[in-house]
């Protein structure tokens, strides 16, 4: 697809992950022209992930390089289901509380009951316990499909929370929004 067609794509967002020499803290930069996460070094850039948004500007698809795409489905502006190839992850919730995480793969169900705090941060699941820093870094990291701090999804490529329907990246390690 030519670059001009990508520039016109509605809701496109790109991340440029720049790592220079031996700097250990990567910087995340936003570009609204291309919907891709790119790894930059002294060599040419490598696309790590491509993001797509639906008509209501919600993250609808994430395609990591060399892997199948992850599709996202929402209910009342909250993530309800994530489909990764043959695996379906569903979050069961009441009006305001997360209750369980259901994974279905090849007709095999795996359900985790979730314990959350007042901000909807998952602090425990069956056999797992989590702790968070004040800015949302989870330890231990746990399954990527489980919600994190304040019930938000952690991006598996960057480790950031994509807030504001995926347009604002918050880095819980650096404790900063990246822009």
UniProtKB/TrEMBL annotation:
Protein's organism: Pseudomonas savastanoi pv. glycinea str. race 4
Protein name per its UniProtKB record: YD repeat-containing protein
């Amino acid at each position: 697809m030519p670059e001009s067609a990508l520039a016109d794509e509605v809701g496109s967002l790109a991340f440029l992950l720049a790592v220079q020499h031996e700097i250990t803290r990567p910087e995340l930069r936003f570009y609204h022209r291309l919907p891709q996460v790119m790894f930059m070094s002294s060599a040419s850039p490598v696309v790590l992930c491509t993001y797509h948004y639906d008509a209501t500007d919600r993250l609808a698809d994430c395609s990591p390089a060399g892997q199948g795409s992850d599709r996202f489905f929402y209910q009342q502006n909250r993530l309800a289901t994530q489909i990764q190839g043959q695996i379906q992850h569903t979050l069961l919730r009441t009006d305001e509380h997360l209750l369980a995480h259901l994974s279905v793969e090849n007709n095999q169900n795996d359900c985790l009951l979730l314990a959350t705090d007042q901000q909807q941060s998952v602090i425990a699941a069956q056999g797992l316990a989590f702790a968070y820093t004040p800015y949302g870094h989870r330890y231990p990291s746990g399954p990527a499909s489980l919600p994190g701090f304040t019930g938000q999804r952690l991006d598996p490529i960057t480790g950031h929370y994509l807030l504001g329907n995926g347009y604002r990246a918050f880095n819980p390690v650096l404790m900063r929004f990246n822009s």
